[in-house]
Write a structure and sequence with these properties.
The protein has 174 residues and is an alpha+beta fold. Helices cover 41% and strands 21% of the residues. The chain is built from 7 helices and 5 strands, in the order H-H-E-E-H-E-E-E-H-H-H-H. It has helices at residues 15-26, 29-32, 64-75, 118-132, 135-146, 151-159, 165-171, and strands at 39-41, 55-60, 79-88, 91-100, 103-110. It has a 5-stranded mixed beta sheet, sandwiched between helices.
Length: 174
């Protein structure tokens, strides 16, 4: 399995993964967030991204206000910068979006260790599923995403999951 906590795997990936590596390192995105245990998650690391896929970075904060201030200090000057507080599954969350070098970047933070956040857990499970299936499965996921279906529901459709696919994926055994 890939060590998703170290983005060096992107250097040998497809063109978009290589560009993502360049942007993340050149603009010190993960480096600036190191105290929050950042992990790049989502579709780009597991090669099921589509044209408008963004770079999703999950973070673990212990003090929400310090996290918000740090995000603002490092990224507020970036194009289309926004930051908001929301509650997801009963968890206080901070979401910031901005654009750097043609990549939309989303920084997502919760008071939950990054490896225990659903964004990371979903990606790891989806990676295991992709590795257990053939290339056609991966291409079908991409086709569904290009039709506007989000990642987890796309997996749910192809795997025949019923109910809340976000929860069912967490228990899925490839």
């Amino acid at each position: 399995m890939i060590d998703f906590k170290n983005i060096s795997y992107l250097k040998n990936g497809n063109q978009k993964q290589q560009l993502a590596f360049e942007v993340l390192t050149k603009y010190k995105i993960l480096e600036n967030l190191v105290e929050y245990d950042p992990i790049l998650v989502g579709t780009i690391p597991i090669n099921i991204d589509i044209k408008n896929s963004d770079l999703d970075v999950v973070c673990y904060w212990k003090n929400k206000f310090d996290f918000i201030e740090k995000i603002k200090r490092f990224f507020e000057k970036e194009s289309n910068f926004t930051i908001r507080e929301i509650v997801i599954d009963g968890q206080q969350s901070v979401v910031s979006n901005f654009i750097i070098a043609d990549f939309e970047i989303e920084i997502f933070g919760q008071n939950i260790p990054t490896e225990l956040q659903n964004g990371y857990k979903h990606m790891v499970i989806e990676d295991q599923i992709l590795r257990s299936r053939d290339e056609n499965f991966r291409l079908e996921i991409i086709k569904l995403k290009e039709k506007g279906i989000k990642t987890e529901p796309a997996f749910g459709l192809l795997l025949g999951l019923n109910g809340n696919v976000y929860k069912e994926l967490l228990d899925f055994k490839p």
